[in-house]
Amino acid sequence: MKEVTDQSNSASDTARISLNVPDRTLRCRHEIKYHISESQAEAITRFISPYIEMDRYSKLHRKGDYPIVSLYLDSNQLQLCKESLRGHKNRFKLRIRSYTDEPDYPRFLEIKRRMNTIIIKSRERVLAGDVPALLSGLPLPPQNYTADTDTINQFQLYMNSIQAKPAVLVRYMRRAYEGSTHNRVRITFDRQLAYCVTKIPEVRLSGGNWQRNPFTRGGVILEIKFTDSYPAWLSQMVKHFNLRQKSISKYASSIKDSCLLGFCAPLIAG
Fold it and tell me: Are 198 and 128 in contact (CB under 8 A)?
């Protein structure tokens, strides 16, 4: 994962955009995932080029890949992980995301809910220094918020409902493409998936104790996201490359692997 930590300057550029422009994260969307080979990823990149282009973050990087790290929260019994592994149709995840280790740039509280086949994401910027207080359930002074407090209050409500605490850091390199139409098609390629079991309320890309998630060893996670209808060219792409949809959770697969290695308790069955 040396490539991740070697891109601190580019990561800072990514974070600077996150700080200064409106957050365009898709709040309500369809999301389909595939596990593909590197050769497929290269061919699919060529296929999609007439329809969508690299997003503004990927354009900042020479190779098009930028780092993402998320601190996932869960109960002591890993309730959210188990629900994901068991394929519950209605479930949620709690995480705090960052694109850099620099303390002056925001972190993002995220509630990611699945309602049957629909993904609903709530997201809010917070200051890096406020993360420990937020995870302890404390309110913050109003001047520390970049917007209204609804998402932050909701995040803490979800967190308190299961007594969620930091469980694991998950990081990877992402190359993203997106369209400019109302359907907001977004295609991402995620590589170098790694995790670090932790109970510390800190979101970091660097540091020790990272383990490579074997799920992406020799492969790439392809995600297709869209808000409205499924475009015909996407159907053609899936058929042309004989893609098979797969249930993939970066969080749950990381926890499962860590339990197999004896890094966490309780153990995850299945």
Answer: no
Pairing between β-strand 53-54 and β-strand 165-178 as defined by DSSP bridges: antiparallel
DSSP code string of the chain: -HHHHTTHHHHHHHHHHHHHS-----SEEEEEEEEE-HHHHHHHHHHHTTT-EE-TTGGGSTTS-EEEEEEEEE-TT-HHHHHHHTT-SEEEEEEEEES---TTS-EEEEEEEEETTEEEEEEEEE-GGGHHHHHTT----GGG-SS-SHHHHHHHHHHHHTT-EEEEEEEEEEEEEE--STT--EEEEEEEEEEEE--SS---SSSS--EE-GGGTT-EEEEEEESS---HHHHHHHHHTT-------HHHHHHHHHHHTT-SSSPPP-
Q: How far apart are CA 223 and CA 229, in angstroms?
A: 16
For the chain, domains (ranges, CATH) are: 2-11+25-260 (3.20.100.30)
Q: Give residue-wise pLDDT tens across range 89-126.
A: 889 999 999 999 999 999 999 999 988 778 899 999 99
What is the model's pTM? 0.87
Cβ 78 vs Cβ 101: under 8 Å: no
First and final C-alpha spacing in the chain: 28
Give per-residue pLDDT as tens, 135-187.
998 887 765 555 568 899 999 999 999 999 999 999 999 999 999 877 789 99
